[in-house]
């Protein structure tokens, strides 16, 4: 049994998602985050021709703070969904907009991913294959260190199209970076399509029942959602 861990650079995925959705062409296309680890595992099984245990899926993300007019409740709900519904382990870093003027806009995402992957790499028997979902060169040192201690690397990325290069060319040109052919998400969109089914939900605010495709733990009916939106737009005008 080969053990693998999946490390997702959420910032990279966030930027590539619109491209993937557009590529699919379907208006209703949504990325199925539960299907993503399954796809990676199946791909590894095909490559290795042996059983694979995907031990854990890490998602490294950012959350905006001190951003004028921005409510980060949706980001919180998204990370909550990854935690509770998809069994991801999330590590979320604050992206502070207060210091934007001074040009200090960095967050700790790349270092967070790299250090977590390295810590586990040095714990005996935790994983054999690091699956890294990213496209930035920032991970080159991490990959080199992991390979120097015998870990195998699978890059999960997107192929892109004319004018859009989600993977840095230095990655693809260096023959000593990866142990498997890159798993391109663009080629597996059929397996990443979220299938939604309508079900009866009870509004957490007014108690009304309504058919909905939302699967979140909380649910607000359309009337309550519209009211909330109106309230927020008023607040924005006044504030
Ligand atoms: Zn309601």
Descriptive report:
- This protein has 239 residues and is α/β, with parallel strands linked by helices.
- The chain has 2 domains: 2-191, 5'-nuclease (Rossmann fold, 3-Layer(aba) Sandwich); 199-238, no CATH class.
- The chain has 7 helices and 8 strands.
- The protein has helices at 10-24, 35-48, 73-84, 109-121, 140-148, 169-173, 222-238; strands at residues 2-9, 52-65, 89-96, 129-133, 152-157, 183-184, 199-202, 209-212.
- The strands form 2 sheets. The chain has a 6-stranded parallel β-sheet, with helices on both faces. Strands 7-8 form a two-stranded antiparallel sheet.
- Helix 5 links the parallel strand 4 (129-133) and strand 5 (152-157).
- The site of zinc ion (ZN) has 8 residues, from helix 7.
- Residues 203, 205-206, 208, 220-221, 223-224 line the site of zinc ion (ZN).
Briefly, what is this?
It is built from seven helices and eight strands, in the order E-H-H-E-H-E-H-E-H-E-H-E-E-E-H.
Largest sheet: 6 strands, parallel
Count of individual domains: 2
Count of DSSP-assigned helices: 7
**Which hetero compounds are present in the coordinates?**
zinc ion
Topology-level CATH name of the largest domain:
Rossmann fold
The poorly predicted ranges are: none
Radius of gyration: 20 Å
Give me the CATH superfamily of the largest domain. Answer: 5'-nuclease
- Ends: how far apart? 58 Å
């Amino acid at each position: 049994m080969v053990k693998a861990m999946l490390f997702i650079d959420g910032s990279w995925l966030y930027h590539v998602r619109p491209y993937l959705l557009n590529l699919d062409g379907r208006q209703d296309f949504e990325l199925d985050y539960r299907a993503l680890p399954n796809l990676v595992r199946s791909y590894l099984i095909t490559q290795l021709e042996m059983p694979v245990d995907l031990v854990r899926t890490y998602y490294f993300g950012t959350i905006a703070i001190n951003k004028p007019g921005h409510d980060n409740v949706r980001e919180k709900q998204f990370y909550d969904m990854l935690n509770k519904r998809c069994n991801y382990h999330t590590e979320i870093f604050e992206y502070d907009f207060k210091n934007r003027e001074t040009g200090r806009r960095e967050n700790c995402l790349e270092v967070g991913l790299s250090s977590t992957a390295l810590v586990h790499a040095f714990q005996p028997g935790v994983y054999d294959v690091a699956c890294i979902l990213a496209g930035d060169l920032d991970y080159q040192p991490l990959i080199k260190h992991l390979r120097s201690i015998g870990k195998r690397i699978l890059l999960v990325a997107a192929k892109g199209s004319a004018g859009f290069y989600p993977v840095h060319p230095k990655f693809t040109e260096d023959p000593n970076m990866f142990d498997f052919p890159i798993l391109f998400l663009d080629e597996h969109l059929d397996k990443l399509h979220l299938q939604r089914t309508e079900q009866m939900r009870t509004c957490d605010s007014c108690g009304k029942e309504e058919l909905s495709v939302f699967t979140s733990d909380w649910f607000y009916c359309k009337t309550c959602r519209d009211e909330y939106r109106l309230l927020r737009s008023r607040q924005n005008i006044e504030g």
